[in-house]
Predict the structure.
Amino acid sequence: MEIPHILIEKLASAKHVAVLTGAGVSAESGIKTFRDPDGLWAQFNPAELASMDGFMSNPDLVWSWYQHRREIVAESKPNPGHYAIAEMQNLFEKFTLITQNVDRLHQSAGSKQVLELHGNIIENHCVRCKKDFVGETTLPDGQLPKCSYCGGMIRPSVVWFGEMLPADTLLAAENASNQCDFFFTVGTSGEVYPAANLPIVAKRHGAYVVEVNPNRTSISHSMDCCLSAPSGVALPLILNEFKKYRNQKS
Ligand code: OAD
């Protein structure tokens, strides 16, 4: 695939690069996305599995689904897309990584200070007192874990439908989107707000905005450039071209 020259020029002159990622970045690591034809929401009901009401009406079902997803995540490894994003933090004066993903593969690839908009699937906390839960989650006879402070029910530390995003994280993501001069939106359908608004905010504040996604999305029309390719292919290629350009200039 061809990377437009203008994209490399803009990237080379950027002082602050921001990246927003979604489930598509982890697709090449074998983790299913949500809204693709074979995605999780084609098979499962988000109201049952990813909402507080769903959890309260059937905690066993919700726990077994998250434990299954955790097993898949535990067996998966970062792919070239994650590694290219991790490398970016060393290439620019300022760099911000914002993710909707809960799988922590960015951190496994070496990314630091990742803004996790939707929490993570690794940790748990108490529904009642909100304290982190660090005990064993797989108990005999299918029992569910209970909070050691207040006895409340324990839930995965992901953000569910109808819940607020962590305020500090969202603010940091919005500030980066306001201030950056180059913004990548990678592997997200742009269907879920407020994340989907971040590339639009960046564009409004003058950033050059690039989408990396094999498919068109609901925000494609607002982009300066759309690269129709898997992120594990497009991102390493962009970095290669960027480094060649930078070496020629120096
Ligand atoms: P979606 O499943 O909505 O979108 C995934 C996007 O990844 C699609 O646009 C695909 O075309 C694209 N894609 C697939 N394979 C790709 C690849 N190899 N490289 C690049 N892109 C690829 O996932 P998200 O946009 O992340 O929320 O969904 C947003 C939120 O909705 C998720 O964080 C989750 C979900 O409900 C929570 O869990 C709170």
